């Protein structure tokens, strides 16, 4: 029994992350986008890589963006298509099934941490290839290996009942972690969700951005006033300088 929350259970994913503050995250990105890119009044195009079930995409559509969302899991893409008229495609970094350029490219909610170190530079280069001349790339990183909070059991209330997730995180290499969780659904079923996460060095990510032609600023977790060095949780806002 080794299934995947993303691949098999998009409804459960939505129940677990129902309290996630998507509104605040989108507001932060829009504020940074306005500050960095300005705008000439023309409709903007946004590319969301790792779009999940489409919550960020839906909100950007409501703000008038032309949105393309990409996710590697067909089940997530199918659920996203029920939420908005954004365009959703199945694909993954570093090779994306999209054409043209975008004013905003966003890798939300630890997408970069699912990339092994060898894939980071190529993936950021892919983002730059799809950015307009003054386009903005946003990506984030959470600290994974907070050993004092694991193992951890969290319950999530929903209209269908109570979901629960028991999670442990193990360091399996230099800044590499294995995420193991058991997810319990209200009907008594449960499944294992396991994947690998990487805590990339922030200075390394800054350096890669510079190499691929991006100027970058780091913020706290979707908070312009928060210090990313205090928690280690960071949002990178990068502008195309080529």
TrEMBL record:
Keyword vocabulary terms for this entry: Methyltransferase, Transferase
InterPro entries in UniProt: Methyltransf_25 (IPR041698), SAM-dependent_MTases_sf (IPR029063)
GO molecular-function term, one example from the UniProt record: methyltransferase activity
Gene Ontology BP annotations: methylation
Keyword set includes Transferase: yes
Record flagged with keyword Nucleotide-binding: no
Pfam family name, one: Methyltransf_25
Domain of life: Archaea
Domain Methyltransferase positions: 47-135
Official protein name in the record: Class I SAM-dependent methyltransferase
